Each structure stands twice: as C-alpha cells, then as structure tokens.
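Page 42, continued from yesterday. The earlier attempt failed because a stray header line got pasted into the input along with the sequence. Redoing it now with the clean sequence only.
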Amino acid sequence: MQRNNAMMNNEHTPVLIVGGGVVGLSAALFLAAQGVRATLVERHPDLLMHPRARGFTPRTVELYRQVGLEPAIRAASYAGGDQFAWVAIQADNLAGEHHKVEEPEDDVPPADLSPAPFAPIDQDKLEILLRKRAVELGAELHFSTEMVEFTQDEDGVTARLVDRRTGDERVIRADYMIAADGYSGPIRKRLEIPTEGPGPFFHTITATITADLTPALRGRPVSIAYLQQPRPGTILMAHDQEGHRWVFGMGYLPDHGESVEDFTDDRIAELVGQAAGIPGVPVTVRPQIPGTDIKVLGFTIGAQVAQRYRAGRVFLAGDAAHIVPPTGGLGANTGIQDAHNLAWKLAAVLRGEAGPALLDTYHDERYAVGCFIMQQALARWQTRVAGGDNPPLMDYSSVTFGPIYRSPAVIGAPEGDAPALPVSQLAGQPGTRAPHVTLARNGEVVSTIDLYGRRFVLLTPSGDSAWVEPARRVAGDLGLPLDVYRVGPGGDLADVEGRFAEAHGLTGSGAVLVRPDGIVAWRAQDAVDNPACVLEEAIRSLLAR
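This time it went through. Structure tokens are written below.
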C-alpha cells in the first residue's frame, strides 16, 4: 500500500494493544479499570460472530466481576443455574449411536471455592460486552485499523497504523505495546521469539450454520459432538438450544493442497449432511464478520508456548504467547488471565508506584502457567479426540484455581516445581489466588474477592490491630494505594462463616498482603516484631523499588 504523506506523528498512548479479540479487549478493559487509557487497534471492521469459546471459568468470571461486568455476563448467558449441563458425545455421525464423553471438567468444585459461577456465554457475545465496558471506562478502540510496522527503543514503541477503509496512515507512540494479534499475527515473528512444544498438529476449517438437525438428535441433548464423518476430528457444536444453529468444524490438509477457499457454501452443506447423518439437509452458511462476506475460517490447532513473553517494551498475550487444543476451553481463559496479570503491573509502573523490573515478572508468572495449561489441554485432547495414552490429568477446578506464581513479585511461594496445587490444599499461600471468604460490610454480604482489583489489600484478624497503622504509614511513605481491613468481631468486615484465618493460613495475629490481581503477594502467619519495617521491606521488594 502506498504511504499517505499526510501522516500524523503526534499521537501518544500509554499502551497500544494490537488485536481486538477477547484477549485484546480484556487488556483494554483491565487497563481502563486501572485508570490507564489504552489504545486498541484491530484490522477487521467488526467483532467476529463465531462463538469459539462457549464458556468461561469461575476464575475468569471473578476477574470480570472486579470491573463490574459479571451481571451483564449472567444476563447474556445462554443458560443459567440448574438449567446448564454441558453434554459432549462421540459418534460416527450425529444420527448414530452416541457415546457420552466423561469430560474432566465435570468435577464439581467446592461450594466455598468462589462467589462466581461458570459462565455459559459464547465468546462473540462476551466480546460485545467487553467492548462496551472498555469504552465506558475510557479505552480507545479502533477497528478497520492495522498496525503494519513498529520499532522500539529504550523509551517506547513507535507504530505505523493504516486505516483499511481509507488507506490513511498515522504514527502513534506508545510507552508499551501488547501483542494480542493471535497465533498467526506478525508481532512475535518480527521479534524472533522462538516457541516450544509439539507445535501445530491439526488444521481445521470452521463455519457457523443454520440447519435443522433435530431429526439426527431424536431428542438427545448434545452440546458438542466429536464425529468420525466426514473425517475423523469433525465437530458439530450446538449454538442454540433448539438444534437449528451450529458450528461445524473439520480438519483440512493445507500441506496437501487444500485451502479455506475450497470450502464453498455447497461443499459445507454437503459435509454437514455427512456429519449429521442426514444427507441433503438444507444448510445456510452465515457470514462470520459483519460487513464482510467471510463465511469459512481456518484455524490452527496445536500446542506451543513462546519462550519469552516480553521483548523490550512489547508483551505477548493470548494466542500470540501460547496455543493449546480447544478441549477444555482453556485457551481463551488463559489469555484473559494473561491480560489481567499484565494490566495491573503496567499501571503500577506507569503511575510510578513500581520499578520497571516489575514487568519482568509477567513472563516469570505467565510462561509457567502457559506451559502447565498446554500440558493439561493436550491431555484433554488425547482423551476426547486423538485417543492413545493420556498424560496425567489434574481436576479442572485445580487447573483453573490452583496455579502457583513464582517470581520477585511474590515472597514466600511454595517450594518445589509443582505448577499448581489441588484446590483442597489452597490456603492463602503466597503466589496462589487469595481465597474466597464470605464477609459482611455495612450489612451487605460480600466476598474477599470483591476487595481486589485496583489496589493492594492488607487483611488481618480484628483481634489485634498491630498491622493497621504501620501498614497505612508505610503505604503513605511509599505513595502506594493500599486498603487495610480488620476481619472479624469489631473489625471493618464481619467474618460471616468464621473461616477467614484458616482459609488464609493465619495462625495468630498475622496479616496477608494481596496484589491487585487477587494473588497473595506476602504473608506473615503470626505477629512479628516491628511490622512497619517488615512491611516496607516486603513492598519494596515486590514492586522492584
């Protein structure tokens, strides 16, 4: 494309986000909630109308709860409460004999694990909510805008943007850039960051269709079907409750000359008939992006993790950093949590509350999680699709709630190399998600989870206030926003179930310091001499001060 000479060179943004999918939109939202006005660019003219992920874990919903999005997610969900049951089956075709897949995520998490439920919402519906909320909080989102070139130096990133509708170009200067441009995006490749893992091993085309497949179902409930026809690895995923809207996916062979363009409407209709076991069924193939005629998309399924999540002032998030098989729905959830981990750290550095070295902990923490999730997703792929020997599986609740962060932004994480703890062993250990405990404040029932999101939080039992004034004094001296709560009788928060101390591993007059992302940063299980000195040393270390 020829350059437009009327380029603007005076734009600046604290953070430039490249990619407007669920991870990029989440990054824009989480940064906006931290008071950072980020700029997001997306090359497509609108959001993708393909559901992709069909549900989000309670841990992910907790993060959206922090930014006020949980009620909207519940309202837009396709099922709720006792109505929701995910039914996965294996069969030759949809009309044939069904064999229910015993999915690892069928485990029932403990009732006291989280205040947030699993969210049965399609990714396309979630992205609409994310976009709306991010704009409400001040994020700038630009669709039909492609980042075509970037350079970076010690002070920031300079990017050239092109408006794909008009051809106009402009230059924007950012303090930092987040690459949320997906597996096939150019940023990781331009940075020459290698990957590890089995890599891509399956290529699939996917289409959203309308077809009456109820004759094949014969009243049998199906959320997703793993089928042998017309090719092994074919899926039909229900997109409504009536059996008329579906997502069709099937492997194809680009290395043998097949291309996405080969799959015309007529061919998709023929393939859907074979998958359903009702040849000739009328099929309508729907556009996937508003304002375009794109109906069939190609996706790469694989397992790989970038060896570095940071290169200078550029950070990889979501599929740009890791791809995992779709079984278990772990990919999107992991990418969202990448964005959440990175957002508070960028905000703290941009506000001068933390030293730049805090940003190195993004790789330390999320790379380890990426490797762990890759292995767990592979195990689920083997169980449901590929067959063969299965790698060791961890129960789904522990996969989503149990990862351990080990980095300079955590003091006292559990020793060893275990990537996660079973939920039964989670007890407020540094580096783990701070536990959910039911509290009461001014007569209102809340969760400890509701205390987190914007600031550091110090929690201590109400029987001893030795931590309160020292904590406030240290926070004031360091210029760090800090909320301090005494929990229990006569304290700031009532311990409704009497679980606070035990759940957080406090054996006496101790205290627990929780990061803005809800991860335990530091803990004193009992009283200490000179709490102000101990706290100041811990906070300076955690924030690379």
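Notes: The first strand starts at residue 8 and ends at 18.
Reminder to self: strip header lines before submitting.
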